[in-house]
Write a structure and sequence with these properties.
It is a single chain. The protein is α+β, with helices and mostly antiparallel strands and 264 residues long. The chain folds into 2 domains: 4-120, N-terminal domain of MutM-like DNA repair proteins (Alpha-Beta Barrel), CATH 3.20.190.10; 133-258, Helicase, Ruva Protein, domain 3, CATH 1.10.8.50. The protein contains 6 helices and 11 strands.
């Protein structure tokens, strides 16, 4: 599933294409997944924002289009066999591509997220000044959940998913199975800094394009951070620090990659 770096990269690539453009027509055949899109027709895109893994498009007329890419969703400049939504703009077209159909689009009154409860419950953005260690540390201390599950929960930090939780825990040298309340303050500091570092580096690299190539930038280019993965998707390969084979387990129902020697 696209995570913060992939969604932020998508936002940055779309901004010069959509900012100030009017959405003339929006075509699809699935009003259950793509809700109230007729309200956006004729409205102008005023800005492009991101919150966690959600894209936010404030529109004229007091409206807002909210997009969640799901597992395989993304925008393309050309129509594909898996195009689900087509946007006709004043200048050109844009297509929402989603092979597995888990992506969602809502058009709502600005800031009215009653149909999207997760969006209202998100924690701070980890690359913003709102992400502060005291609150992060307190959230860890209050929880008996495994660290991997806590990072995926979205309340400690918005936008973190499977890839970057694994990579941040590796950099912090912490086992994904450790409980939040078990950490010492110094260990929590390592995780806080590792999370920011990994997400910033991945965003600068355009995110991660895995072997299935489901994530691509709107122009079709892949991300580049997959070349820097230390543990994610590398089960059985040597740890880049100690050479021990990377292990794979399950935490919070998700496949989890870690070095059994480096991550205590």
């Amino acid at each position: 599933m696209p995570e913060l770096p992939e969604v932020e990269t998508t936002r940055r690539r779309l901004e010069p294409l959509l900012l100030g453009q009017r959405l003339l027509e929006i075509h699809h055949q699935d009003p259950r997944r793509y809700r109230h899109t007729q309200k956006a027709q004729g409205q102008m895109v005023e800005s492009l924002l991101r919150r966690g893994k959600f894209l936010l498009f404030p529109l004229s007329g007091g409206l807002e289009m909210v997009v969640h890419l799901g597992m395989t969703g993304g925008f393309r400049l050309q129509k594909t066999p898996h195009t689900r939504v087509a946007f006709r703009l004043e200048q050109g077209e844009l297509f929402f591509h989603d092979p597995r159909r888990f992506g969602r689009i809502w058009v709502v009154e600005k800031g009215d997220y009653r149909e999207i409860p997760l969006l209202s419950r998100l924690g701070p953005e980890p690359l913003s000044e709102a992400f502060r260690f005291p609150e992060f540390w307190e959230g860890l201390r209050r929880s008996g959940k495994p660290l991997k599950g806590l990072l995926l929960d979205q309340r400690l930090a918005a936008g973190v998913g499977n890839i970057y939780a694994d990579e941040a825990l590796f950099r912090a040298r912490l086992s994904p199975f450790r409980r939040g309340r078990e950490l010492r303050e110094e260990e929590a500091q390592r995780l806080f800094l590792a999370l920011k570092e990994v997400l910033a580096e991945a965003t600068a690299q355009g995110g991660s394009t895995l072997s299935d190539r489901t994530y691509q930038q709107p122009d079709g280019l892949p991300g580049g951070f997959q070349e820097r993965h230390a543990v994610y998707g590398r089960a059985g390969l040597p740890c880049p620090l100690c050479g021990t084979p990377v292990a794979r387990g399950v935490v919070a129902g998700r496949g989890t990659h870690f070095c059994p020697r480096c991550q205590a």
